[in-house]
Amino acid sequence: MSQYKLLVRSAKQVVTVRNNGAKVVCGKDMQAVDIIDGDDNDGVNILISKSGKIEFVGKNSKFEEKYKNLTVDVEIDATGKCVIPGLVDAHTHPVWAGDRVHEFAMKLAGATYMDVHKAGGGINFTVEHTRAASEDLLYKGLKQRLLNMMSTGTTTVECKSGYGLEVDTEVKMLKVIDRASKEIPITISSTFLGAHSVPRITDRLIKIPDIISDALLRCYDTFSGDMSSWNQDIATLNSLVLTLVRMVRDTSPCMSCEVSLQTLQVKIY
Asked: If you count Cβ atoms within 10 Å of the first and of the last residue's Cβ in the chain, which end, N or C, has fewer?
């Protein structure tokens, strides 16, 4: 059995997400990164453990001193190439049907988003087409978008639902995302965005409790098993969110709510 998962050998250049050796960077420091340059005689190696941890990044000469007779699952010859970290796209809405290209002309003519919305465009246009689309059609579109992301360096992506605004379509979208996470080699974090917008002819104070008590439980039943033991927590969450909605309803007409299916985190904004 091999000792390590991956060895990338002899790269011309490796870009790391650090600045001057710091393990964590934030704010303005994120604008600067470390670049390790190799040369024709001494390239840069990267060694990954079985658990996925980066064990070593540095010149081949130092690597050879430290590691003797190691075995790896996969070895990649990166001679003459630059290696960069995968990109993390932390906010996307990649599952939808019905493009809104026709709205560009309205916007170029000076229409605001609300003008487009009142004319039947905007999110409600996408909602109608997404509701009507089959899972296979939505998956086909999502797959192409994810492949496009991968081709430009994205390795992890957060995918929201939110173009259903009713339970069946939201679950349909989440099923499509779940299928993609199993069939496409990209890491996906899925988010139930049940309150992306207030549906037509619906009061938000009526809709929010439905989302929490009905849609959220349905999503967890579908993707995480039995949720019967969560009923009390959902009731508490329902009360909390409803209180917050009442507090901000007059100042936040475009408020939406999202729930992470991985962590049960609720965001209202």
From this structure: N
HEC string of 109-144 equals CCCCHHHHHHCCCCHHHHHHHHHHCCHHHHHHHHHH
Cα 204–Cα 262–Cα 160 angle in degrees, nearest 5: 50
Give, in order, the Cα–Cα distances in Å from 212 to each of 63, 207, 236, 241, 257.
53, 9, 10, 9, 10
Helix (H, G, I), strand (E, B) or coil at 157: strand
Rounded Cα gap, residues 59 and 57, in angstroms: 7
Q: Is there a contact between 59 and 41 (Cβ–Cβ < 8 Å)?
A: no
User: What distance in Å separates the CA atoms of residue 146 and residue 1, rounded to the nearest whole number?
Assistant: 34
Kind plus residue range of the DSSP H or E element containing 91: strand 87-92
Pairing of strands 266-268, 257-260: antiparallel
Q: 106: which residues sit within 8 A by CB, 6+ positions away?
A: 115, 116, 119, 121
Give exposure, 190-199, as e/b (b: 16+ Cβ within 10 Å).
bbbbbbbbbb
Q: pTM, whole model, 2 decimals? A: 0.72
If one counts every other C-beta atom within 10 angstroms of the C-beta of residue 90, the result is 9
3-state SS of 28-49 is HHHHCCEEEECCCCCCEEEEEC
* pLDDT tens-digit series, residues 171-201: 899 899 999 999 999 999 988 887 777 666 5
The sign one gets for the Cα dihedral 57, 60, 62, 67 is: positive
Residues in the chain: 269
CA 14/CA 81 separation, integer angstroms: 9
pLDDT tens, residue by residue, 80-112? 999 999 999 999 999 999 988 889 999 999 999
